[in-house]
Design brief:
Shape: globular
Number of domains: 3
Pfam families: TRAM, tRNA_U5-meth_tr
Order of helices and strands: EEEEEHEEEHEEHEEEEHEHEHEHEHEHEE
Low-confidence stretches: none
GO molecular function: methyltransferase activity
Bound molecules: S-adenosyl-L-homocysteine
Mean pLDDT: 96
InterPro entries: MeTrfase_TrmA_AS, MeTrfase_TrmA_CS, NA-bd_OB-fold, SAM-dependent_MTases_sf, TRAM_dom, U5_MeTrfase_fam
Helix content: 10-25%
Protein name: 23S rRNA (Uracil(1939)-C(5))-methyltransferase RlmD
Organism: Chryseomicrobium palamuruense
Number of helices: 9
Largest sheet: 7 strands, mixed
């Protein structure tokens, strides 16, 4: 094939689409070029930096005709930081792009024709994260902290992160200035030298309680009492200061050993009327405002009257399960990670639920076994990780036909794939409601319901 596009070409192109990681896509005689920073419907000038056989990459030189949704990114490190991909697109534009992404996955991958509703977005899409995990490093003898640059483990030194809490911002800045006073030299992933690996900050959205976790290579901190005092002064909402030790040469954030320096070992927070206890390593949804939106939608789609038995597959710490338990006769949650199941059980007790139980195991095995033992749920809720449902679980459900399935998904592609199998198995898919849990990123969550 004649290659029309060559490395170092300078071209003027029209941007048609956006990839899953937020790059613009233009086609030159059918040959796709990926252009970071370019937006759909723009005419841009580019410099081709890599021309592979089937596609290439280009650098954005000039935007000749900007998208009506182009804005200048408010974050000072947007160009280098890998945390956000879409700050150069207005929030309205982001929601439109996400809706289109879901619709196109439904049509292309699943041949699903159920309506895709407009994305439920946030009124204020900033400072939404209730947890920040901030790596620390040294650059020319200076302490730096922020998020990793895109596609690397180099740190984009960040003066303020506009999607994290004010609490996390303040602690990040202060620790950057003062870490060395406490012997907390930043850890270097390449050499394994240094002490301070990550600062993790969690703040309860409703409770306002803050937990500060210092992840270090060893236990050693000089003058820990003074450090505790400093943290409490900088962030008076702090109720828990914890150290986690991670000596391993790994990019996994947490190590096995955790101990409390000051205050509680957990913070509490609530979603709607339900309270949760969250410890340093517990999984908990990142965007509390939109989590409530998502769960309320799931609850509405479950259409509970108080008489139903519900199975909640991939239940994590039981957040959706307890939401459902408010309106169902009983709920059983299934989750593969044992500590998450412990959290789920504790949270059920904490909230006085006597109709919610949890089991450890793979959803596809546990639910199949339940059916074989004659347990028949009225409603099944699933919320799998990005890879979607296990084929065996779909087979089991299609064979036993619970009359209603609510599917919560963080990946439209695998959702569309799975919905095809349910529709082939006789289910009707009613509508797909996308919810924006991660403004300025390309992620989009969906919830949908099926009946038979
Ligand atoms: N529903 C929860 C968590 C969803 S995240 C919430 O809203 O907070 C997906 C969960 O599925 C994770 O907790 C993960 O540990 C779990 N998981 C992954 N594979 C699984 C499997 N095969 N069976 C059961 N749970 C699984």
């Amino acid at each position: 094939m004649d290659m029309t596009v060559q490395k170092n070409d300078r071209l003027t192109v029209f941007v048609e689409d956006l990839t899953h990681d937020g790059q613009g896509v233009a086609k030159v005689d059918g040959y796709p070029l990926f252009i970071k920073g370019a937006l759909p419907d723009e005419e841009v000038e580019i410099h081709v930096v890599k021309a592979l056989k089937k596609y290439g990459f280009a650098k954005l030189l000039e935007v000749n005709k900007p998208s009506p949704f182009r804005v200048s990114a408010p974050c000072p490190v947007f160009e280098t930081c890998g945390g956000c991909q879409l700050q150069h697109l207005s929030y309205e534009g982001q929601l439109m792009v996400k809706e289109k992404q879901v619709r196109s996955a439904m049509e292309r991958i699943g041949k699903i024709h159920a309506p895709v509703l407009p994305v439920k977005g946030m009124d204020n899409p900033w400072r939404y994260r209730n947890k920040s995990q901030i790596p620390f490093g040294l650059e020319d003898g200076r302490v730096v902290a922020g998020f990793y640059k895109s596609g690397s483990h180099d740190i984009a030194d960040t003066p303020t992160c506009l999607i994290q809490s004010e609490e996390a911002d303040r602690l990040m800045v202060a620790l950057k200035e003062r870490a060395l006073e406490f012997g907390l030299t930043p850890y270097d992933e390449k050499t394994g030298q240094g002490q301070l690996r990550h600062l993790v900050v969690r703040t309860g959205y409703v409770s306002g309680e803050t937990m500060v976790v210092l992840v270090t290579k060893s236990r050693k901190i000089s003058q820990p009492e003074r450090l505790i005092q400093l943290i409490r002064e900088i962030e008076p909402t702090t109720v828990s200061i914890v150290q986690n030790i991670n000596p391993a040469r790994t990019n996994v954030i947490f190590g096995e050993e955790t101990f409390v320096h000051w205050g509680k070992s957990q913070i509490v927070d609530s979603i709607g009327d339900i309270q949760f206890e969250i410890s340093a390593r517990s999984f908990y949804q990142i965007n509390p405002v939109q989590t409530k939106v998502l769960y309320e939608q799931a609850l509405e789609y479950a259409n509970l009257t108080g008489h139903e038995t519900v199975m909640d597959a991939y239940c994590g710490i039981g957040t959706i399960s307890l939401f459902l338990a408010q309106k169902a006769k009983s709920v059983v949650g299934v989750e593969i990670v044992p500590p998450a199941v412990e959290d789920a059980r504790r949270n059920a007790v904490l909230n006085g639920f006597t109709n919610a139980e949890f089991e450890i195991g793979a959803a596809e095995d546990v639910i199949t076994a339940w059916y074989e033992a004659g347990q028949v749920p009225d409603v099944v809720v699933v919320d799998p990780p990005r890879k979607g449902l296990d084929g065996k679980l779909i087979e089991t459900l299609v064979a036993h036909k619970p009359r209603r399935i609510v599917y919560v998904s963080c990946n439209p592609a695998t959702l569309a794939r799975d919905l095809r199998l349910f529709e082939d198995g006789g289910y009707t898919i009613h509508e797909v409601q996308p919810v924006d849990m991660f403004p300025h990123s390309t992620h989009v969550e969906c919830v949908t319901y099926l009946t038979i």
